[in-house]
Amino acid sequence: MASSSKIALSGKSLPELTQFVTELGEPSFRARQLFSWIYSKRASSFDQMTDLSQEVREKLKQTAQIELLEIAHLQISRDGTRKYLFKLPDGALVESVLMSFDDRDTFSACVSSQVGCAVGCTFCATGHMGFIRNLTAAEIVDQVMGIQRDSGARVANVVYMGQGEPLLNVEEVIKSIRALGESVGIGSRHITVSTSGVVPGINRLAQEHLQITLALSLHAPDQQTREQLVPIARKWELPELIRALHNYSQATGRRVTIEYLLLSGLTDTAEKARALAELVRDLHCNINLIPLNPVQTISGQIPFSRPTLVRQRHFQELSGRSGKTVTIRLERGGDIDAACGQLHSLFSQQPQ
Ligand code: SAH
Ligand code: SF4
């Protein structure tokens, strides 16, 4: 069980673990042993670390604990999706989701980058919570480790699509991406960062030349509709945003993903499909359509609805005339409120 007086090791890098063992009066090779137990063998207790003497294990137990985050609640969906509510060291709560998209045991983790979110998109439950705080890189990494320790699954892909706007916490997000590669063994090509359109964050990420996939939550092909849905669209308008994506794609050589929310009667019309195709014509991208999840927020039901499957397919066909690959997102975990936009930590309103 997590105890705040102890030092959490999960999420720490090899140099940080080296510093920890040195301060404990142990030789530096202990750091390698700990690193391997934590990240490769995904140990959940010091007693599993059989190549450490009983005496060393006791010393570790007195001063440290493995996990940084504590599992406050777990829900398991009919489709196997697992939604975790994690308690952070200061008691704040965030959610993360483990999904499997096929029968080949390939697991993806959806992680949060902030507690709450300041962007306030009108269709998103997290947006209705407001912003509480940024997560540290270690808190992001330990969501993946915590999921692996608990489920026994080997996470192959990580998507930054949980709570929060990753590019409003860009430095910790970059650190966490590096740590996922160096410590956990999940390379950048298996990582997707989704943003609502924070242009300075896109430019900052471009400088890192990471091989991640950048996904933009565009949701509307015209400025006016986008402003209704994603309030920060007023700050970074469409021409500037599309230019930033071009630059990003050129700097990294990577194709970006355009995420587009289908809202009945508002963004799913034939006119919008054609405008979308036109807007992204010259962009190196794929399009991923997200049928709305009609979420319950703190202030009640959102005023939008999900289009029928026929309308979704029609939009897919029309926007596909751009020559881009257009897919419709497969929803997981809807029955446990684990699907896109449903992460809101309503639990955080009640003491555990
Ligand atoms: N803040 C980032 C990443 C987290 S949200 C962003 O906005 O991109 C991850 C995705 O879920 C985004 O594309 C977001 O627009 C989408 N989403 C939010 N609420 C949703 C809802 N009610 N139904 C379907 N998708 C939703
Ligand atoms: Fe924040 Fe993304 Fe939700 Fe918008 S959709 S409120 S940016 S988490």
Percent of residues in helical segments? 25-40%
Rg is 21 Å
> Would you identify the CATH architecture of the largest domain?
Alpha-Beta Barrel
Main sheet attributes: strand count, strand direction, barrel closure: 10 strands, mixed
Q: What is the overall silhouette?
A: elongated
Characterization of the model:
With 352 residues, the chain is of the alpha/beta class. It folds into two domains: 9-65, DNA polymerase, domain 1, CATH 1.10.150.530; 70-349, TIM Barrel (Alpha-Beta Barrel). It is built from ten helices and 16 strands. It has helices at 14-23, 29-40, 54-63, 137-151, 170-184, 199-208, 223-229, 238-252, 270-279, 309-319, and strands at 7-8, 64-65, 70-76, 82-87, 93-100, 107-110, 114-116, 131-134, 155-160, 191-195, 213-217, 256-262, 285-291, 296-297, 300-301, 326-328. The strands form four sheets. It has a ten-stranded mixed β-sheet. Strand 14 and strand 15 form a beta hairpin. Helix 1 (14-23) crosses helix 2 and helix 4 packs across helix 5 (170-184). It is elongated. The relative contact order is 0.12. It binds S-adenosyl-L-homocysteine and iron/sulfur cluster (SF4). Residues 117, 119-121, 124, 126-127, 164-165, 196 line the site of iron/sulfur cluster (SF4).
